[in-house]
Amino acid sequence: MIEITNVSKSYAGGTKKAVDNLSLSVRPGEIFGFLGPNGAGKTTTIKMLVGLLRPDSGSITINGCDVTARPLEAKRQIGFVPDTPEVYDRLTGLEYLNFIGDIYGVAGSERKARIERLAATFELTSALGDQINSYSHGMQQKIVLMGALLHSPPVWILDEPMVGLDPRSAHLLKELMAEHTRQGNTLFFSTHVLDVAEKLCDRVAIINKGRIIACGTLEELQKGQTGDSLEQIFLELTDK
Amino acid sequence: MTNRVLTLLRVQFRLIWRGYMAKTTARSKWGFLLLPLMLLAFAPMVALFGAMYVALYAGGSALGQAHVVITFGVVAGQLMCLMFGVFYVISAFYFAKDLRLLVPLPIRPGEIVLSKFISVLAGEYLSMAPVVAPALVVYGLLADVSWTYIPFALVIYVLLPVLPLVIASLFSLVLMRVTNLRRNRDLWRVVGALFGVGLAVGFNVISRFSARGAASPDQMRQFLESRQALVDAVSRYFPPSVWATDALRAGSPAYGALSFLLFVAVGAVALYVMAWAAEKMFFGGLVGGEERKRSSKVLSQADLVRETGRTRSPLWALLQREVKMLNRTPSFLMNALMPFLAAPFFIVLPMLQGGATSGLPQFSGFAGHPLIPVIAVGVVMFMNSMSALAPTAISREGKYFWISRSIPVAPHVQIHAKVMHTLIFSSVNLLLALGAMIYFKLFTPLNGLYVVVIGMAVNIAAGYAGLLIDILHPSLKWTDPQQAMKGNMNGLFSMLAMLVIGAVAALVTVLLYNFLPMLMMPGLFAVFAGAAFGLSKLAGKAADLRFAEIED
Fold first, then answer.
1. Could you report the predicted ipTM of this complex, rounded to two decimals?
2. In this complex, is the C-beta atom of A52 within 8 Å of any C-beta atom belonging to chain B?
3. What is the pLDDT of residues B454-465, one digit of tens each?
4. In the sheet that A65-66 helps form, which strands lie side by side, from edge to edge?
């Protein structure tokens, strides 16, 4: 469960408001899509969710843990994939996953089983012994995803997770996302691929200029709009 | 060509400047008020070289060779540039992150190399200042020089690193082109850089042996003659150092002007040759650098079981990450090893050349002197102040710092892991100090114990002091790993912090030595242990606060 209450964040000494009094609630068992044009405040919001940025005001809780007051407990709940897949390029894929396993205290047998399963899912088994700097962009995205999911976090926060993935891996990731929420977990992700959001999400929010301009199920968003598809709704709303 | 080089340079310097000023809070800008204090950190070294040059001038005058001061300064500066040049140049030419943006642009390889070369050159002016500037100032003040001295000296100072850096660049261009054909390229590159260091130290050692026969009852003359051999040796391979001397020495201005022109011409020709060589070889070596080795071996089930079966504590995992990231980044590793390579250059070899070897027996009588372990601790401290490992530990993470900030490990624990990593290196300082004591017959078990115990406290204090500085002002937006360490001002701040701690320790030592000599060593230990404890708490607190604040 993610609770965002009246969160604001400014840059450049308070002159540029990136997120303006944002409130959202993502329920367990829900896939929540976070949409918006470039520079709308998506990544800023996500960075505040995972503790990489501190809100100027308001509060954020992850499964009941306040990210500012109890950052370590909150971080344990999260599996995070940033918008650029940058992880220690001088480590091998397996060394990176072991590092993450040690940090999150994933036991040996459990760790082995998960690495095997995730590597097979993302077809990365043969590359795990290589340094990450030899990976393609898509492979780096896969290793970041594997690292984020290794400790079976109840809350997934993914910033543009499909970027760089080949169609098969993207499809498998979507299946993993659906499976994750079927087990009663929470998923919050940003994307520019509106078809994916339309098919996958239980609810979406559209952010523009730091403010939520629409939030709800597709049916709820369609009310009052001329278009039916999420793409048409998005274009109408963000054009205003 | 010139316009494009200037554009590239402007972008590079702007990136370095913005990288440093990235945190545009008012507080960080106050840091620049500390600039004079930072320069103060170099004061002891400048004073040391200044005093040496004054003595050299006096000795040289007696032999009618006062100008030897300039030659020594010039040769020392050029040797320094040659010694470290290979690895600075390799790092700037081949490991800068912006290269993948520059290569596809319609820019000639010579232009890229020239702009990178000039940025390395700019760094050298600061590095060689404590060694070269005092020589030029001492000679200018003491000798009866002509009006050409100041303009010539300025131009010579500006051009001084050009030739050694061009030699280092040519060596690097060939090395990278050749090693491109081999496996384990990173290893070859570190070996190549070490070869450059070996070359410079080799000059020193050879000249030392050639000076052996030049014993003289007059200590200054012996000192001078033994160094004269070094100067002769270097002059043979680096005639421009003789021209620089001739351009500046008192006497015939016409002859001086000719030497000056020769010196300038050689610098210009060297730059042209380098640009030409870069056109031929740069892209060949660079493209190889972008090719990453993929192992043909697929991870077996047994490998997976073995690797995943070894679970470790977060602290241990963080320490291993530090070790692997440093060891596998040639530029970081070389910077970390630098103090150990530079220490013999600055301390041991000059002592050996100065005829200290012939005075060895007289040292052994001092083994029981209470100040011997204090001096050894001072050496440990000096070595620590030269290390950029701790004050760049956060900066080195660069674009990967988001991982440290998003993992569920308290920042103060992460700081402890980083200090543990610096201790692996700074423990070598203890071994060097112990080795020096044994070599100079000053070792006693008690002296050894003092050096290990107090030296360890010094290492810990230095580690946390460096970390504290880096937490307060990390430089995370670098494009070239070299900027993260050598181009990082935090190294200077750390040096200054060590100077302050050292001054307090010296004061306590002097007071106790005079009034309570029995408590001198425990007192010294208390100062460093107290500093280590206080700094560890401070650095931990600062990390807990700053990790949440730093915005990348």
1. 0.93
2. yes
3. 999 999 999 999
4. A16-26, A2-11, A57-62, A65-66
